[in-house]
Design brief:
The protein is α/β, with parallel strands linked by helices and 252 residues long. Helix content is 32%, strand content 19%.
């Protein structure tokens, strides 16, 4: 509530209000530079807000780092993956959170069993001993998701998750997300692909020029009206042109 964040010469967010219901898919949409990623990085503890409050499950929090956010059950998967190619899937997932005995001996069997259970929960299937360098883009993204789930995330932030995926991988990702939500996980995802937003989200919050301007549902808007909210004016008819009605996102 009331989140504000400025950098030298730039007011990235101001008077942001965002409410997300548990076990739903909540989309954050807006033009490039609208302040979406800054807001999500604030929620994940990468930035500290200049003003406003963050409340999770009724408890107000001050996140000084992502470690604080993770402790509160919030995980974030960035658009650019942060995996080590020279490590296996299992090693990447447990890196920094290795299960060990009192004598410091790694308990890899425990980690492997836990990872397999998480993979079953999202419908992912690949060999956890495979080197990440051998995985495709969609599989790497699943590893990133598994990594935050392994740390106990119940609120999952996805920053432009479909930007690097082919259509089949997009379908697989959304199938994984729906399984997570059915099991009680909350998903917040940033996107400007309005067809995807309307197809999979339960609620949509629109950010324009650094602040929230509307929260709606796919049943209340269509691509055109959602695009109008993003830019703050009536858009020309995009029929027969790009599938994204926002002019600044069209490719020439």
């Amino acid at each position: 509530e009331g989140i504000g964040k400025s950098f030298p010469g730039v007011r990235a967010n101001y008077d942001i209000d965002l409410r997300v219901r548990r076990a739903t898919i909540h989309a954050i949409v807006g033009e490039n530079g609208a302040g979406k990623s800054t807001l999500m990085k604030t929620l994940y503890g990468m930035h500290q807000p200049d003003e406003g409050t963050i409340t999770v499950n009724g408890v107000q929090h001050t996140f000084r780092s992502p470690t604080d956010a993770i402790a509160a059950g919030i995980g974030m998967v960035h658009q650019h993956f942060m995996l080590a190619d020279n490590l296996s899937v299992l090693e990447n997932v447990i890196l920094g959170d290795e299960p060990a005995s009192g004598r410091g001996v790694l308990k890899l069997d425990v980690a492997r069993d836990r990872l397999h259970a998480l993979m079953d929960s999202i419908g992912a299937a690949f060999d956890v001993d495979t080197m990440v360098a051998e995985l495709g883009v969609g599989q790497r993204q699943r590893v990133e998701i598994l990594k935050v789930l392994y740390r106990g995330a119940k609120i999952l932030i996805l920053d432009e998750p479909t930007a690097v995926l082919v259509p089949q991988e997009v379908d697989e990702l959304f199938a994984n997300i729906k399984k997570l939500v059915a099991d009680g996980t909350t998903v917040i995802f940033i996107s400007h692909k309005l067809d995807e937003v309307l197809a999979v989200s339960d609620e949509i919050t629109v950010i324009r020029q650094g602040t929230t301007v509307a929260t709606t549902t796919p049943g209340q808007v269509d691509r055109r009206s959602l695009g109008n909210l993003m830019v703050g004016s009536e858009l020309p008819d995009p029929s027969g042109r790009d599938d994204d009605p926002c002019p600044r996102h069209r490719t020439r």
